[in-house]
Amino acid sequence: MKYSEAVDYLDGKVVLGVKPSLDRIAAACRLMGDPQNEFDSIQITGTNGKTSVSHMIAGILRACGFRAGLFTSPHLETVRERISISGKLITVNQFAETLTDIQPAIEKAESELSEKLTYFELVTAMAYHFFRRERIDVAVLEVGMGGRWDSTNVVDSEVAVITNVGLDHVNELGRTREKIAVEKAGIINEGAVVITAESTREILMILAERCQEVGAELKVFGRDFRLDFHVPYRVAGEPPAQYLSIRGLEAHDFKDIKLPLLGKHQAVNASCAVAACQAYTEPRSRTDPEAYRKALEASTIPGRLDILSEHPLIVADGAHNVLGVDRLAAALTSEFDFERLVIVVSILEDKDARGMLKVLGAIADELIVTENRSARSISAQKLADFCRMDRIEHRLEPDFARALALGRKLAGRDGMVCVTGSLFTVSEARIFFRHQKASREMRQDR
To answer: How far apart are the first and last CA of the chain?
Structure first.
């Protein structure tokens, strides 16, 4: 099977809707020889921050000398982004070989159950097989949605991270934070250490009850680990960053970290990553504060306040729910200097678009509603209707490229443009600016 054929095979698994069950992935893994049982695992779920925390954990473990696999979702530009080892994406050939290897087991599982695996389940199975073949020590697994029925949840993870619990995917997970918390708590296994930055008493009680049921240990940000020091770092001509020190588990200090990620929420994410890694490395006597610091200082998280261009400064952020845009708004207003802020936004149809637009409209000098290429993108006209309903000043431009051009013009040289609303929107912006850069370079070479 060639890589293009593998991608086509996967694309044929894309179906609308969610089928909550572990039966399909469990059957596939059984027929594959249960590869997920041949390495350690750490699971990460949460309404926001789980991708960032997953990347940071994998980086820290790699710096401490572990061969760490990383599984994340969704991808921005290539499906290969979802599977990596030691910071390197699975190659085109490895991807095709992996799917070819497991295809008989997948098709046999589908035949036994008279049911097709989903796209996410199949990519998860590929990750398990690839990680086993490459003999990793530990897999860092980002949950796709929820936790209890997620296809990552066939592992017996000894560390679980629940970053926070907000309202998202309400049709699938429940319409209250409490119901969603129960779903996310499903990743907590017997004897695990659970790391969370959730602060709501009612949600913490749900997590604590699950921990008591299975004999797990709950570690809470602000109580068991915390930020000791945090300040934004801005020097003209240097990339923006923030300085922080973290008081980890058992009062272990991780000092003087220059984190190249913006927003206090990323400092909290870094604290969760440190605590999660401690829970894994300390029983193995492999906690090295200097390795932790170096890993965090090298952190790169695709789609999180990516700087795509300057003059005007253009950033892209994948905030895709109300909690996410709240945190984005705080970062934009506290950690950037600009004369005018223009926000270009496109949102998917299963999100609280009105809630997100209210937050973004409150901080934007200009708000441009547009569309991305996803079949689930809300039409720009519908976003404009939401804005009118809530008396939010806005501009309507359905064409994404034109919306970006309009944003640059309105921002002016000393302004700022933020492209947000969905990781699909971020992906489109990254591709747009990469093509622009390539075109400029071609013209200069002539």
So the answer is: 39
